[in-house]
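In full, the data:

***
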Amino acid sequence: MKKVSIRELFKALRFIKQSKPNYPLFWGERLNKITYYGSEKDIQKAIETLKKVRSLRTSDEGTARLKIQKLIDDEGLKASILINGNTVWSRKRILKNLRRIMNHGTLYNEDQDKPPILSNYFYEFLHQCCGSIAHYDIHGWIHKYPRVEDLKKFFMKNEFGKRVRDNIPTWHTDVKVIVEDIERALFPFQEYMKTLNHSS
């Protein structure tokens, strides 16, 4: 076996890095893995839309998540898009459902023959990203948090005893943006007071 000096090793590694392979080589270097789920038509539309954005795979995950979230909402993408195994959430879909919940005052529908007001999409967001267990299914979650007041309490202190916004990892930027918007909608007075404090 031939001995190789440290200098020769670094020279070889520098050459490999300059050749830009399709896989990560060095410690801080990483490529985002983007995965799609849905109908063939929805997946194809998502792939074509995301192809137009350069550097999605090589930018940091937080930045890539916000770019994809904007595309999902602006282009009306229906396919589920995951980066490194985690869903990128539609801000528009969740806030639309939140407005509907706030207009009704409840997460359930008075007419038991109709589906609940809380959408399955928003329910998945709550139990996957906001510090809640699944409660068996959407109806179990609604049973635990039936009214807007209960939803407000949950966002102030989730099932792990933390404020939802404080429980989100830094790389999960799409979730953080949505949770901040939810808090603005649920707690308008507190948001107003924050703007007063910043302006003085």
Residues 105 and 163 are 22 Å apart (CA to CA). Residues 22-87 form one domain. The two ends are 72 Å apart (CA to CA).
